[in-house]
Amino acid sequence: MRQRGKFITLEGIDGSGKSTQLPRLVRYLRSRGVKLKVTYEPGGTRLGDRIRRILLSGKTSKLDAMAELALFYAARAQHIREVIEPALAAGQWVLSDRFSDASMAYQGYGRKLGRAAVDQFERAVCGRLKPDLTLVLLVDPAESLRRARARETRRNSTRGRFEAEAVAFHRRVQAGYRAIARREPRRVKLIKAGRGVGELQEELRRRVDALLRRAGASRRTGKKKR
Ligand code: TYD
Question: How far is residue 207 CA from its own chain's centroid?
């Protein structure tokens, strides 16, 4: 039987430097011979991209926090069925720019919906699907928000709904990521991002190497993983 692929997710608050690190990590994994599907949330499917426009647009006003959570999970359900599961089942690895931990951090902690509400959606939509490795970039929320907003200005786009949130919101989101990592230290790795691009990439690669070694070992022993 074909070995199931590994599922890696990259997380962090807005402006944490994910978009600089992600393509570099993709190049590295591919150079190591990994067949990799690269994807993102919200989105990754046609339906998901339509939902994304609603969720991120600064023009969407008065979106109830629970409605927001449900929309993220609606996009995720489609993303799992259409993209993530088929790739993993075919033995490909999947690297997703954000996944469920973003809902816990942003909606559970940032919007203060609480863990229970997010966990219920999580069980219904994701079932047993969990990333094998989640890399969370940690930054100073005030600094990263400045960066995220400067990026919006450069692109001449209107400020997105999340970039428009106050620093306090982004602090809660980052505290949420820390709490998730405390609960699941094996899966979730916190990585301090306020340093050079190269140095940070090195650490991401070290984390991924550990997963590559585990995958190699289970392939050799023929051990079936989940
Ligand atoms: P995006 O423009 O992709 O931001 P980034 O490049 O920082 O990832 O927008 C994604 C936004 O959606 C980001 O502010 C985080 C938010 N988000 C949630 O609030 N909940 C979620 O479940 C997901 C996937 C994203």
Answer: 16
Round the average pLDDT of the chain to a whole number and report it: 93
Say how far apart CA 126 and CA 112 lie, in whole Å: 21
Tokens 């809902």 belong to residue: 103
Confidence category of residue 55, pLDDT binned at 50, 70, 90: very high
- Is the confidence at residue 225, as pLDDT, over 50? no
Residue 47 backbone zone (phi > 0: left; psi -120 to 50: alpha; other: beta): alpha
Q: Is the pLDDT of residue 197 over 70?
A: yes
Which residue matches tokens 């982004």?
170
User: Ligand 1 atom 5: the closest Cα is on which residue?
Assistant: 14
Question: Ligand 1 centre from 89 Cα, in Å?
Answer: 26
Residue ranges lining ligand 1, Cβ < 6 Å:
14, 18-19, 41-42, 56, 72, 97-98, 102-103, 106-107, 162
Given a contact cutoff of 8 angstroms between Cβ atoms, the answer to whether 131 and 7 are in contact is yes
E strand or H helix that includes residue 96 = strand 93-97
